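Action item from last meeting closed. Structure (414 res):
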């Protein structure tokens, strides 16, 4: 029985919005698209497509919001902005791309969110599922719209979900869902840390299996919406944890011996989450182990570049927040207590670096800061007695770090 055509207005004509427009037109719905920018990223693609879709640019039309059955919100649109507030005030029903995907998908799908580690976990999980012989599509916040994962030649879909996309979801119901971690991030977009956590927790609505860190009991109430709930982490009561011997255990029983891994410095929690989710799809431990052996990590995420003059170089330039940088420094210093030189550059979010820099005091950790936030970071380092030099650019910072680092030490680009 064909689906009754309905009317949609899509807010935002970036990659996600454009994917929504194409999907809805193919389904036979009436679609309009609007963007408060005059030249959004996918405008030319829409024009070239020849689709008969009315466009409003440079603002938002209240009458289109009121007339449409659904308003589809692009993840870049914060509810704190004028456009976001207008959509909330005048839309009949609001959806996200994830909702459109959920309504159309015909295979099981798993959803992963968290402040850090999402891309690593969804990629590693995808490889575990493939080792088990499944045809897998990976999408979402990892760079491929969820709707582009729809197809007849797949057995399951693995989605990386941002807090932005989850905020607007209404009908998203994955087979399995995980929150990897939560730290302060995107507070301007969400308005508060509580609102950020609420958005993340929407991933559990309607799921059969919920996974959350044993270190975050505050997530238990949201996770308990699921029929099956498990935890992972270092705590003794975690369902999934790693023994001192290096073996992964599940509910106290030895499950998988972690192989020797090289070329990356992935947090053990990411291995645990990937195995727990793969287990829900019937993947055997031997398939997980083979995927772990073959997985080389993701570029620019705790990626070991090599050794030069006895100094190991690690690229973690994909770190997008303070917590990611802090964790990477801790892991690297544990592996190289002889010393770490941290290259930190670019824009610093509105986060307090005090507690992180203070934790480095007294350790053989030095900094070279560069870019827009260099002097701000230098001031914090001085406050706690942590050595820090300032460079204008990365090209200038690299030789400064090379001079600071001694053999058997490490340099981290964050």
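Sequence:
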């Amino acid at each position: 029985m064909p689906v009754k055509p309905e009317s949609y207005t899509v807010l935002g004509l970036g990659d996600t919005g454009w994917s929504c427009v194409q999907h809805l037109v193919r389904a036979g719905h009436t679609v309009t698209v609007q963007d408060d920018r005059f030249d959004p990223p996918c405008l030319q693609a829409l024009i070239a497509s020849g689709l008969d879709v009315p466009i409003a640019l440079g603002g938002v039309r209240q009458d289109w919001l009121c007339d449409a059955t659904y308003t589809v919100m692009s993840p870049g649109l914060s509810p704190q902005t004028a456009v976001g507030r207008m959509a909330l005030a005048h839309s009949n029903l609001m959806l996200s791309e994830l909702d459109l995907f959920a309504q159309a998908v015909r295979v099981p799908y798993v959803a992963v969110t968290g402040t850090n580690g999402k891309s690593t976990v969804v990629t590693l999980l995808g490889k575990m599922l493939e080792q088990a012989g499944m045809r897998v599509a990976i999408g979402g916040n990892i760079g491929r719209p969820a709707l582009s994962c729809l197809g007849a030649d797949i057995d399951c879909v693995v989605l990386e979900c941002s807090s932005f996309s989850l905020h607007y979801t209404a009908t998203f119901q994955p087979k399995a869902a995980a929150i990897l971690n939560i730290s302060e991030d995107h507070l301007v977009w969400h308005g508060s840390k509580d609102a950020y956590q609420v958005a993340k927790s929407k991933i559990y609505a309607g799921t059969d299996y919920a996974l959350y860190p044993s270190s975050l009991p505050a997530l238990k109430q949201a996770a308990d919406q699921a029929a099956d709930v498990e935890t992972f982490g270092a705590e003794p009561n975690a369902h999934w944890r790693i023994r001192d011997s290096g073996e992964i255990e599940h509910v106290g029983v030895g499950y998988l011996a972690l192989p020797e891994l090289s070329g990356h410095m992935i947090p053990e929690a990411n291995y645990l989450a990937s195995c727990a989710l793969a287990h829900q799809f019937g993947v055997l431990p031997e398939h997980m182990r083979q995927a772990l052996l073959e997985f080389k990590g993701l570029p620019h995420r705790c990626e070991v570049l090599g050794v030069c003059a006895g100094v190991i170089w690690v690229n973690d330039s994909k770190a997008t927040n303070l917590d990611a940088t802090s964790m990477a420094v801790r892991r690297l210093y544990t592996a190289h207590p002889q010393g770490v030189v941290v290259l930190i550059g670019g824009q610093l979010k509105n986060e307090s670096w005090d507690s992180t820099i203070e934790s480095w005091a007294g350790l053989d950790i030095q900094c070279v800061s560069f870019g827009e936030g260099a002097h701000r970071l230098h001031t914090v380092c001085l406050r706690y007695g942590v050595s820090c030099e300032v460079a204008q650019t990365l090209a200038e910072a690299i030789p400064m770090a090379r001079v600071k680092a001694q053999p058997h030490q490490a340099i981290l680009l964050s």
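Note appended to the action item: DSSP finds 16 helices and 20 strands in the chain.
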